[in-house]
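Notebook, student rotation project (T.W.).
Task set for the rotation: take a protein with a known small-molecule partner, predict the structure of the complex, and write up what can be learned from the model alone. Partner molecule chosen: adenosine-5'-triphosphate. Sequence and SMILES entered below by T.W., checked by me.
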Amino acid sequence: MSRRAGNATATAGPGPQEGSPSERLLFGGPLLHDTGWNKHERAYLEMSLWAMALSLPRLVASTVRLAWRADRRALWAVGCAEVLHGVTQAIGLVAVNDVLGAVLATGPIADRLHASVPALIWVAVTSLVGALAMSASTAGTGRLEPKVERVATEMYLERVIRVELEAIEDENFHRLLDTAQYGAAGSRRMIRYCTAVVGALVSFAAAAGVLTVLHPVLLPLLLLMTLPRSWAALRNSRTRYESFQRWAQHARAGRLLSQTLIRTDPAPEIRVHDVGPFLLGHFRSMSESSEAEQTRLARSAARTRLIASALTGLATLVTYLALGGLLLTGVMALSVAGTAVLATRSGAASLTTLVLQVNSLYEEACYVMDLERLCVEARKRAIPVGGLPVPEQPRLIRFEDVTFSYPGDSPDGRPALSGVSLDIPMGKIVALVGENGSGKTTLVKLLAGLYQPGEGTIRWDGQDAGTLDRAELFSRFAMVSQDFHRWPLTARMNIAIGRTDRPLEEERVEAAARYAGARKVVEGMPRGWDTLLSRGYKGGHQISGGQWQKLGLARAHYRDAQILIVDEPTSALDARAELEVFEQIRQLAQAGQTVLLITHRLASVRDADLIHVLENGRLRESGTFRELTDNPPVGIFRDLYEMQRRQFTDEQSAALPGQRKPADAAEKSLEL
Ligand SMILES: Nc1ncnc2c1ncn2[C@@H]1O[C@H](COP(=O)(O)OP(=O)(O)OP(=O)(O)O)[C@@H](O)[C@H]1O
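Predicted structure of the complex:
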């Protein structure tokens, strides 16, 4: 199959189970979700109408609680206004009945009109009060809705930031995150629907009360009229929600493609490699798959509505025939029949509104359920709060037979770390070296408490790290990882974000920048410290990878933590900057700071107090630079080091006659 964009849409797609060609080519398989996030989700979709009706009050109650938290005054205002509106409708109907009674009575027309005036005044007053109540409700709802959405969004984000890293990386949890984010907007809309439901309920109760008084048979007939529409609306919303669940990841992948095309960081590659038309073609192809699903939903909804309309017509006919029968048999007077027609029309209208609103409420409730489910799941997977205090000035961190596997299957079935036992003495430079994928980053993530060992123990002065207060543990670390975050914020914040639990201190920001050699970088920016480091925003500025790395180092320094983890700190730095960084690391250690250094430049670990060498997730060698290179004479470290050294000396000997030998700086770097 050609992989050009043009063919992305032309290829006839197989069924959704196999995934479209775009899904298979770009994402390795179908993105449609079949089995449900867990059994609860499935159970919810398979709920009977009755069970669903029973669950609705609980969901409404949770939204009302949210509204109460968001703005209780607005909630009161909306509730009272809706009830008042319903009451005015009921009184209005009774007043209309009186007007008809007076007008259709016997006697001169002037007298009859005169007799109807008080009731007419009631009709006018109730209409006016009803209109005022409606506008008060609209104003209150408008105030309440955004606040409810904000409270729900905060609830969502609060839970998310407290879960274990492992949960964030888990595909199933991520899918729940995807769908639950609609719960906040769902809560907002639920407020509107709740309000409408209260209004429709009171209006319906008014009409139903009047109808029951006029004749008891009219009420069941009214209910019969609205039954088909309720069924149709409910069926359609369930189908829509089920489809939403199935297509959530597909939709995210489609958004990913379109977003990639407008982001600044991939923009150069998209242009030079001409990836744009390719991605656009697959975006179109993925969109066409979801459009086909939308068409299927629309067809199914149209069919259901058609059946419902036919049944409603039939029920309406039965109702009016019954009314005619009552009139013909003299059971009901003409004036009463007039009111009955009005009450039936008004009752049917409010019942239809009620059903539609309850249905919309149900649909939104499904999304709010996702949010609730996320909260439950996030609570289960939250980082534990509390624990034993971390030793104030620990002397030794020890890994005892630590094994760790990432969730899911690893391709070769081996853990990322197996049976690792090693020491990290405090106040020293400890280097972790090893080939790509040997487990160095995993080890420091375990050390920092981001993951928990599957087997074995990490001990701080003998104390099991699993029992220690995690928040306190995190506070002991500063980290410059390979993929440290480039915050799309100002230069100042990019450093100060290293320590947000204290007020920002300009002098410390300056000092951290000086330390990491980032002062010159900032001076060269158009607005200095206030320069926004994100292209695409007003005044946004772009800096180079090495300049970012200096800011990252400054951030870690600003954090001022007991243990500094530097994972490939100099990969993007020039030779001079690299030398400076290693010199600073050395100074830090002299000042008593613990530095955990991960690097592939083996000459740079010459000064480390202890070097641990990892291979395939196992600890293979430990010792000082001298011990590892001299004794034993053959080892992994020595081999790797020799390989790098040879490469360097080969480069030297390859220099052209008369040309200077490679930069002094590079030589020094090797000597470090
Ligand atoms: N988040 C993750 N989820 C699943 N597997 C992972 C994850 N991170 C790393 N791995 C796997 O764990 C193993 C060790 O990875 P790790 O990143 O610790 O190696 P490393 O020594 O730091 O490598 P490098 O020198 O390339 O940075 C690798 O096989 C990798 O594929």
